[in-house]
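Consider the following assembly input.
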Amino acid sequence: MVDARRTKKQPTLGQLLKGLRARNGWTLKEMSERSGIPVSTLSKVENDRLTLTYDKLLQLSQRLRIRMSELFAEPDEAGEAPVTARRSIGQLEHAVRVTTPNYDYHYLCTELRRKRMIPVITKIRAKSIDEFGELVRHSGEEYVYVLAGEIEVHTEFYDPVLLDEGQSIYIDSNMGHAYLAAPGCDEAITIGVCSSAEEDLMSSLLGLHGSDQASSALPTPANEANAPAKALKRRSPEGSRRERA
DNA sequence: TTTGGCCCGTAATCTCACAC
DNA sequence: GTGTGAGATTACGGGCCAAA
């Protein structure tokens, strides 16, 4: 899952944060004031003694006005020419995983920044449109393929449609839409891709740039922003829990 | 300014008893 | 034997505070 250009070890969240802070010339105190995260916590994160939960990462990216994906990738080398031959191998064990009461999602290939497609494997547990809430819409297009189970796709201008294993759907994302586990199906697993002409699609999907940008119906964290933060089973980009010293 | 010890809260996991 | 719920245990994020 490493870019062909990148032969060194995958950077940790701490290294990425430290680099971000160094580039901006901030002290821990300044970064703490900007992010709302205590100095000692930032210090521990930078030294890989602690990792941040999803809600803290979201808070960090929002307050520092950076893309969520910035926290998952190395900074560009200074003066580096635009990348035209990027590659990323998606591995489930390296995916950025977010689990909520309704959904499990695994964001793949997260080390690639400013990509125009967001691949995500999703376990869908929402069973009714009432449970899901209002149909969502955003710029771009998306494609969803059912890997397991059966899903019910609600769209703004069409009748709901059932998709069984092996079936898929492609829609314009600016049309209101929602994905549910079909009746009689406890949960379904899909693989989907959201695309957009905009480079900060990831941030857009995560709802980082204002309330006027609706989140994707693909169950992204932003879709469940109303869920209690502590109810989320969070995992750091590194995807590991560290041993206590 | 930064680090690390300590403590608290919470979620996940484990164990066990109980019902079917 | 299997499923389920309660309680105990474990692991870890988060924050306070003192020391380097």
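Confidence is low (pLDDT under 50) at residues 1-8, 74-83, 204-245 of chain A. Ask yourself how this observation constrains the way the partners meet.
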